[in-house]
Amino acid sequence: MSRFGRCEFSGLKKLQSRLNKLDDEEINIFIQSCAKELAARLLAKVIKRTPVGEYPSSSGKKGGTLRRGWTAGKNQSVSKYVSELVIHHYGGVYVIEIVNPVDYASYVEFGHRTRNHKGWVKGRFMLTISEQEIERDAPMILERKLEKKLREVFR
User: Fold this and answer.
1) What is the pTM of this model?
2) What stretches of 2-154 adopt beta strand conformation (E)?
3) What is the pLDDT of residue 75?
4) Could you give the CA distance from residue 31 to residue 35 in angstroms, rounded to a whole number?
5) Paired residues of 95 in beta bridges
6) Contact 145, 37 (CB under 8 A)
7) What pLDDT, on the 0 to 100 scale, is given for residue 65?
C-alpha cells in the first residue's frame, strides 16, 4: 500500500511570480549597469596609476595629458564619462571599450626604446595592472550587486 502526502506549492508559485518580474529588458539593464560599474572602477584605478609629466614652468608645457586622455580629455567625473560609453553586446558577452587616444599611451603602458635606440624605458602597465585588479575583484562586486537586486525583487 502506498501512501501519498500532500505538498503545498504556493511558496514556489509566489517565488515564480516574483522572478517573472525580471523581464529580459530589466535583466539587460542590470547587466549593463554591472558592466558600467566595472568600467568606472577600472578607469578610477588606471587614472590614479597614470603618470603625469613634470615640466619646468618656463617650458610652457602642462603635464597630465595622458591622464586626461582616459576620459577623452573631457573635464568630467569618471562615472559621468562611463555613463555615456556604448556597450556592445556580442552573443552572451557585453563589451565596453576603454581607450586612451593619446598617441604615446601604448609607449608609457608597455615601455619603449630611447631616442638613441641604446636604452629601454620600462613600461608603467597602468592599464594592465588595473585590469588584473578588476578581474580579481569582479566576482565579489557582481555578487553584491546581484544580492541587492534580488532583495529588491523579493520585497
Assistant:
1) 0.82
2) 88-90, 93-95, 111-113, 120-122
3) 77
4) 6
5) 88
6) yes
7) 93
